[in-house]
Amino acid sequence: MFATIMLLAALTGAVQAHGPAGETPAAAEHGTATEHGAAAQGGHAAEEEHGFDILHHIQDSREIELPGGVIHLPAKGSWMIAGVDMTPTKHVVFLGLTGLLTMVVLVGAAGAARRTGHEGAPRGRHNIIEAMVLFIRDQVVMPNIGHGGERYAPFIITLFFFILFSNLLGLLPWGATATGNISVTAALALLSFIMIEVAGMRALGPKGYIGTIVYIPHGLPKALVPIMALIMTPVELVGKIVKPVALAIRLFANMTAGHVLILAIISLIFVFGSLAIALGPMVLAIALMFLELFVAFLQAFIFAMLVSVFIGLIVHAH
Amino acid sequence: MQAVETANALANGLLGAGLGAGLIMIGAGIGIGLIGGRATEAMARQPEIAGTIQTAAIILAALIEGATFFALVIMFLMQGAITG
């Protein structure tokens, strides 16, 4: 599962790095000049001299900045696998880090739970993970999917922890938010879409699944059936596509907007060019960082909850 | 004259993006404000399910914010396309 998520996200990340296919990088690059203007309340000339570039902290890049120096990643097109550019970029590296972290944490907690058996709860850090896993399973997955929900619980739990760790890694100093890349969230949404449709096919069978696309209510007069099918089918199809797209954009925009806001507030210090006013922006930035922490948890929870709701809706569509 | 017209067109476009962002915020503010008001009202009527109401309110506010962000992304794209 992790391998699939990482591979898909890396693929989409690689494809995006390959060319300006993603909307946001192109828009963001063009928007650098206006971002300066947006960040400064006044004194455009001042911050153009200082040249404080907000966007390079948010966008994907081919170098990882660390306290000691800069790690330069391979150039574009160096790692070609089967004709696809798979060179790691900053977000791909952090994606791999997130996957590794999720694996270590969850497998470790599961091992601890198995070792303590039925005597009691695991102690220490595994207890926290168990509390969160049980919360997701009992408050998010089971109420929304109902019976048969246990088979989807591992996917939802993994999704939640993956998004959570990715969001939190972006809040660390010198960290980058992998989920702040539209390709990554699109990959997660694609996987969720596949999961939802497979769940629907499994629960409803082929005929029932077609019934969710060509929606015909019971007891409709025979004459109206073709009209209903003609009108409702595009609506249902669009509904199926739009929901994962909304998931992707929601997560991406939440993560990126938070970072843009904090960077814009901190860049006020550079705009004024003096440390005397540094207190105001720093206090505001700290408050916004707390909000970002909350948003990191909330968005992971919302993504997991919406995927469970969609699975529940399609599994109980009859 | 041509340069002034082009500059005016760019300025008008950016003005549109800015106004759009503001209007989005009005919509989001109204939506989340309504949720806040009704949620606190409900909590006052029935304090024992205040926890459930609070959770529901946070989830609904996040969903509205999601819609806000779609529009915000469009504004970003607009602004990028204009200055690009």
Shape estimate of chain A = globular
- The fraction of residues assigned to DSSP E strands of chain B is under 5%
CATH architecture tag of chain B: Up-down Bundle
How many beta-strand segments of chain B?
A: 0
Q: Beta-strand level of the residues of chain A, as a percent range?
A: under 5%
Write down the CATH class of chain B. Mainly Alpha
Number of helices of chain A: 10
The helix-and-strand class of chain B reads mainly alpha
Helix content range of chain B = over 70%
Tell me about the biggest sheet of chain A?
2 strands, antiparallel
- Global Rg of chain A: 23 Å
**Secondary-structure element order of chain A, N to C:** HHHHEEEEHHHHHH
Assign the structural class of chain A, choosing from mainly alpha, mainly beta, alpha/beta, alpha+beta, or little secondary structure.
mainly alpha
In round numbers, the mean pLDDT of chain B is 89
How many extended strands of chain A?
4
Query: Based on CA inertia axes, which overall geometry of chain B fits?
Result: rod-shaped
Low-confidence stretches of chain B: none
Indicate the multimeric state.
Answer: heterodimer
Describe the structure.
The complex is a heterodimer of chains A (about 325) and B (about 80). By secondary structure, chain A is mainly alpha-helical. Chain A has one domain (about 1-315). Chain A has helices at about 1-20, 25-30, 30-40, 45-50, 90-115, 125-145, 155-170, 180-215, 225-270, 280-315; strands at about 65, 70, 80, 85. The longest helix of chain A has about 50 residues, at about 225-270. Chain A is globular. Chain B has one domain (about 1-85): F1FO ATP Synthase (Up-down Bundle), CATH 1.20.20.10. Chain B contains 2 helices and no strands. Chain B starts with a helix and ends with a helix. At the A-B interface, helix 2, helix 9 and helix 10 of A face helix 2 of B.
